[in-house]
Design brief:
Strand 3 (62-66), helix 3 and strand 4 form a beta-alpha-beta unit. By secondary structure, the chain is an alpha/beta fold. The chain has helices spanning 19-33, 50-56, 83-88, 99-105, 109-121, 134-138, 142-154, 183-200, 203-208, 222-226, 243-250, and strands at 8-12, 40-44, 62-66, 93-96, 125-130, 166-169, 210-213, 233-236. Helix 1 (19-33) packs across helix 11 (243-250) and helix 5 (109-121) crosses helix 7 (142-154). An eight-stranded parallel sheet has the order 7-6-5-4-3-2-1-8. It has a single domain, classed as Aldolase class I (TIM Barrel, Alpha-Beta Barrel). The mean pLDDT is 95. It has eleven helices and eight strands. The longest helix has 18 residues, at 183-200.
């Protein structure tokens, strides 16, 4: 972790927690951690909890995120949510291109690019997810896949538009499986992502953008992961659902 980049721990709750459960969690975690000065925590609940959490997510260092969005501003898209609606709810971030969206709902590099564009246009910051499946890793295609996804999502942006973008590397084979890339494996891919950003933009962007690791992150491995030079935080699934484990992640030490 580079001290020039403020570390970020993002909780992706996926399709978990009712409204009352979400409110109770946020009240508890803010009370137990207090205000945060040297790190940022992002909570990404289900759409149904966004409005309520905006009202109570007041602690310094905490931000609200949505898990997905549509790329159009409005229209006949039953069941979808626009970036403008999310901005209106107080979201600072939107997760785009999560592996589950790619694998289960057919998202492509092009739809990820459209969503990334829409999120930035709406005045929020995208958390752009990239990562390989097990077969691609076993074939030695990890770097190729990650670079392709990154370029597909971010091509055509100006350095100014990239200012608030966050990238999350999530090896699909390590999500919800209990398997985790070793800190060295994760660092290798994060370094590849940073080099790809330098090629797409410039050194300023390469050094500024935060790159998160996501893949069975838990209290027992968070310190080792964040000790690596190019890992700036974590996108957390299962371990973010319980206050005790998430508090341990937020209070990482390196």
């Amino acid at each position: 972790m580079n001290p020039d980049r403020r570390p970020l721990i993002a909780a992706n709750w996926k399709m978990h927690k009712t409204l009352s459960e979400a409110v109770a969690f946020v009240e508890s975690i803010q009370k137990e951690t207090g205000p945060l000065a040297d790190r940022e925590v992002v909570i990404a609940p289900a759409f149904t909890a966004l409005h309520a959490l905006r009202e109570i997510l007041r602690q310094k260092g905490y931000s609200l995120a949505a898990q997905n969005c549509h790329w159009e501003e409005k229209g006949a898209f039953t069941g979808e949510v626009s970036p403008a609606m999310l901005k209106d709810l107080g979201c600072a971030y939107v997760i785009v291109g999560h592996s589950e969206r790619r694998q289960l709902f057919g998202e492509t590099d092009e739809t990820v690019r459209l969503k990334t564009t829409a999120v930035i246009k709406a005045g929020m910051d995208p958390i752009v997810c990239v990562g390989e499946v097990l077969a691609e890793r076993e074939r030695g295609q990890t770097f190729e896949v990650v670079r392709r996804q990154l370029e597909g999502a971010l091509r055509g942006f100006s350095p100014a538009q990239m200012a608030g973008v966050v990238v999350a590397y999530e090896p699909v084979w390590a999500i919800g499986t209990g398997k985790t890339a070793t800190p060295a494996q994760a660092q290798e891919v994060h370094a590849c992502i940073r080099a790809a950003l330098a090629a797409l933009f410039d050194k300023t962007i390469e050094n500024k953008i935060r790159i998160l690791y996501g893949g069975s992150v838990k209290p027992s491995n968070i310190d080792a992961l964040l000790s690596e030079q190019d890992i700036d935080g974590a996108l957390v699934g299962g371990a973010s659902l319980e206050v005790g484990s998430f508090k341990s992640l937020v209070q990482f030490t390196i």
